[in-house]
Predict the 3D structure of the following.
Amino acid sequence: MGDITRSWWLLLIRGLASLIFGILALIWPAITLLVLVIFFGAYALVGGVAELFAGFRHGAESRAWLIFSGIIGILAGIATFVWPGITSLALLYVVAFWAIFAGVSEILAGIKLRKAIDNEWMLIIGGILSLIFGILLLIWPGAGLLSLVWLVGIFAILHGIAMIALSFRVKNFTHGVGMP
C-alpha cells in the first residue's frame, strides 16, 4: 500500500500532462501534423516515463502492468519523434493502439488498486475512456486529422481530470492513515 500512496504525485504529473495536452490540441484545431506529432510524442513519453517509474516503485501485484504500459507509452512517444513525417492515418493507428494498451493496463491496475483502497474507480474510468477512444479510432480511421485532434483533445482532458482526481484521492488516503 505504501508504494501506491508514495507515488500519488506521479498520477498528478500524468494527469496534468494529459490536461495540458488536451487543452493545447483544442486551442489549435488546425494544427499541422508535425506539431500534433510533437504534442502526442511528448504526452506519451511523459505518461510512459511516469508509469514506468511508478512500476519500479510498486509491489509485485501491479508492477508488471505499470511497466508494460510505461514501455508502450515511451515507445509510442519515441516513434512519433523518430518519424515526424508520419501520415495522419499512421499517427491515428499509433494513437489508437497506444490508447487500447494503456486503457487495458489502467483497468487492470485499477482493479488491483480497488483491493487495496475502497472506491478507487477513477483509474478504471480513465482506462475505460482510453480503451473506448482507441477502439473508436480503429472503427473510423477515415475521420481525418482534424477529427483526431478534437478526439485526442477531449480524451486527454477527460483522462487528465480522472488522473488528477485519483492522485488527490491517493494522497488523501496517505494522510488519512498517518503515512509520511
Residues 114 and 120 are 5 Å apart (CA to CA). Residues 145-176 form the longest helix (32 residues). The mean pLDDT is 80. The chain has one domain: 2-176.
